[in-house]
Design brief:
The structure holds two protein chains of two kinds. Chain A contains eight helices and eight strands; from the N terminus they run E-H-E-E-E-H-H-H-E-E-H-H-E-E-H-H. In chain A, helix 3 packs across helix 6. The longest helix of chain A is centred in the middle third of the chain and has 28 residues. By secondary structure, chain B is mainly alpha-helical. The longest helix of chain B has 7 residues. The mean pLDDT of chain B is about 70. Classes of the chains: A alpha+beta, B mainly alpha. Chain A: It holds the Pfam family V4R. Chain A: This is 4-vinyl reductase. Chain A: InterPro entries: NO_sig/Golgi_transp_ligand-bd, V4R.
Amino acid sequence: MTTSTSRPDPRPAVTMPTGREKHSHYSYRDFFRFNRDQGTIIDWNNTQNLLLSEDFIVGLQTGLEREVGDASAAVMYTIGMDWGTRDSVYFSQWYEREYGIGVKQSNLLFLLETWWWPFTAQGWGKWEVETESKQKGFLFINLFDSMVARTLGDVGKPVCHLYAGLFAGFFTAMTSRELGCIEIQCYAMGETYCKFLLGGQERIDAANFWIAEGASAREIEHRLHQL
Amino acid sequence: MLTLHPGRDLTQPLSAFLQGLNWDNRPLTPTLPTEDPISAPAGMLPLTQSVGQFFAAFNWSGIRPRLQPVPELPEEDPFTLDDFAALFGGALL
């Protein structure tokens, strides 16, 4: 399943479900509102959802590679970045509406988990943010059950460029710092989960160089701590 | 509410009920109040206790007594988005 941040919608407004005062709304029936008459799936945060098959992801990836070749990774990253940037604005709005507190005043880890929860509900996979390295100005994000990698299978290279862009766009907008993100380990390379590095562009460039040299995620992590 | 047979459960099987009766009329050992009086049904308080023990077994305040001190909650991590952003350095966009 995939979503797009809502835009002005000409259709009649959907009434919000009762029990809005509860925040534990990630059960299937709470989070999604299926409207058969309108043919819509609106989620708790009033975002429209689309049901897509794995064929869509394969088609998107294959079609893009056929059109632009190796640049497909950059295109997917850019799409993700734009998505993350837009979503940061939308997330800030619904977060404040839901919890009555601004994103700047919130506990960071709660804020991040709250942001990713809907993605998990929509099928984008679970995540884990490693904040141990935050004092050094970078952090790792582990992604379990990536929708893209799971679909494309073992292709021997990182494929989750959309996720990397999404993280880069979201964190750049939320921190007002220019941050980049790169996937240093991927399920599509035979690993058990995907791992992303988030940080300033100089660190991302260094990691990119080490990946080109054939360094593993563990080696990259070790070298970053030595910088 | 106290039953006609204080301390006796009238819903138990007949054999169990009859075995539990004090056939030999031996003096009953006074029962001390339980550690958690609120969990003892009022109807089960033995009437062989002293008046002081009997009334002490009532949870008059309605508040469950704590057997252990309340653990202190850890202070909330004040780490916010701005703190996080500052770690990356560089100029603001």
